[in-house]
Amino acid sequence: MSPSPDPALWRGLTQQRISRRTMLKGVLGGVGVAALGSALAGCSIEGSLSSQAQQKVDWPAFWAKQKPTTKLNFANWPLYIDQSHGKYPSLEAFTKASGISVNYQQVIQNNAPFYATVAPQLRAHEDIGYDIVVMTNGWELTEMIQNGFVMELDHTKLPNFAKNAAANVKNPPYDPGNKHSVVWQTGFTGLAYNTKLVHRPITSFKDLLDPAFKGHVGMMNDNTELGSAGMLALGIEPTTSTPADWRKAAEWLKQAQPNVLGYYDQSYIDRLSNGDTWVSQAWSGDVFQAIAGGNKHLKFVIPDEGQMIWHDNMMIPMQAQNPLSALKWMDFYYTPEIAGMVEDWVNYVCPVPAAKEYILKELDDPAVANSPLVFPSPSVDAKSHNFYVFKNYDEYEEWNKVFNPVIQS
């Protein structure tokens, strides 16, 4: 069913979004690195999977016996869905079409603290109160899957995903076959520069080593992003990298340090806009929003060595009370109309390419529809690299030991 509410209902103002990437290096709500690392280690079951993961579940039988409900509890990040006058038009359209009311909660500020909060309930096989959670591909998502904390999806109930999903969101390395997840939004991590201050094209990570940029380069304090950039700079494929590769990347990043002003969270975009930094690691969605907000002097580029692609994913936690409602929303979202409504407000990379025409023709927003940062050309996929998928907690800890000192030095 294709919803067709009044377009004026869902048009919202573009606002600065909150970082989607894990920031173990920072402080959130008073939780420091050491305390957070300890909490996450407590979530791990080293050397084995949880009893729930080991338990065999007949998923076709499970889904066959589920009964429809009229509720959906949805946990997401702040400012990550279309809004208008305090309401969520896409969710209202869903309720109108399905009869399912949505309790939408903007409770995920960061992957690691959220997971540390809900993991004890998941280990105890308890309902965490949400039927959908949105998590970024990374260690927390991997551990949720490995430990059997999320349901396997019934793809017979997701025909719109099969029909409309972009190629770059199908069969991701962190969840082959989309067995447990479907993408909510996608983003690219490349480079951006301030054309007022940099009077030549930036085309490569090697440009970050140019002495002319001493003290004017911005890098990310997310070590997943930082370490992956170091590997791309050396021509190393992150998805198949080894700890030896990680150490090589860390050495390259240390070589760049004389030019680095700082390692930033999402505040990097303000530093770049106001001229504190001239060149910076950057997320495509942030640069689009900054340009739309009047910073026309910013330019996002895909380095010659490639860029990283990341995904925020919808998953259904085990013991969720309304799993059929969750599947119904996932499928509803993967229509061009609904994905278009969300995308026109959020401005990251849309997982539904056909939403471009809807935004252009129905929403009359060519700035979003024609942006290569929102609807990239197919050739961009060839230049985009997935993040390394950690096999176990020891690997994750090794990564932190390699790259955290770069940020902290």
Explained architecture:
The chain is of the alpha/beta class. The chain has two domains: 7-186 and 310-374, Periplasmic binding protein-like II (D-Maltodextrin-Binding Protein, domain 2), CATH 3.40.190; 188-309 and 401-408, D-Maltodextrin-Binding Protein, domain 2 (3-Layer(aba) Sandwich). Helices cover 37% and strands 14% of the residues. It has 17 helices and ten strands. It has helices at residues 7-10, 33-43, 51-54, 59-64, 89-98, 111-123, 139-146, 159-164, 223-233, 243-256, 268-274, 284-292, 323-333, 336-346, 355-361, 366-369, 393-408, and strands spanning 71-75, 101-105, 132-136, 182-194, 217-220, 260-264, 279-283, 298-301, 307-315, 384-385. Strands 1, 2, 3, 4, 5, 6, 7, 8, 9 and 10 form a ten-stranded mixed sheet that branches. β1 (71-75), α5 and β2 form a beta-alpha-beta unit. α9 crosses α10 (243-256). The radius of gyration is 21 Å and the shape is globular.
